[in-house]
UniProtKB/TrEMBL annotation:
CDD domains: nucleoside_deaminase. Signal peptide: none annotated. It holds the Pfam family dCMP_cyt_deam_1. This is Nucleoside deaminase. Residues 3-120 form the CMP/dCMP-type deaminase domain. It comes from Actinomadura luzonensis. InterPro entries: CMP_dCMP_dom, Cytidine_deaminase-like.
Length: 141
């Protein structure tokens, strides 16, 4: 990791501190271009905003998908205080961002939580393949 990347990751951690000080979970992220210029910053607002999806990584992925062309998005790096959750990872993939650099891994974060994090929710499937396929088939061609 370069000194500039460390500086950007430290800023993401500062944003996490700002989120905590505001009464939200301590997570922060920023999006930088290939030259290291900060394009956008976000912090968690799940509590103060009353929205369980208001993770900074998701907000930045949505911003990038809306505001950046695909080539510009692919040249960006997201710096984030913690490894993105599954919801945010999906949004990052769909937004076309080029790279993610995080400070705490999911396992490290869970070790800091009483009880070790969120419980798993059982999922069942696949089911009704033919019916489901009919709605999707041909869409991606």
């Amino acid at each position: 990791m370069t000194p500039d990347e460390e500086r950007l990751l430290r800023r993401a951690i500062e944003l996490a501190g700002e989120a905590r000080a505001a009464g939200d979970p301590p997570f922060g992220s920023l999006l930088a271009d290939a030259a290291g210029n900060v394009l956008a910053e976000e912090r968690n607002t799940t509590i103060t905003g009353g929205d369980i999806s208001a993770h900074p990584e998701l907000k930045l992925a949505r911003w990038a998908a809306r505001e950046l062309d695909p080539a510009t998005a692919a040249a960006t790096t997201m710096f984030t205080s913690c490894q993105p959750c599954g919801m945010c990872t999906g949004a990052i993939r769909r937004s076309g961002l080029g790279r993610v650099v995080y400070a705490l891994a999911e396992e490290q974060l869970d070790a800091l939580k009483p009880g070790g994090g969120w419980p798993e929710v059982p999922q069942e499937g696949p089911a009704l393949y033919d019916e489901a396929r009919a709605a999707v088939e041909g869409y991606y061609t």
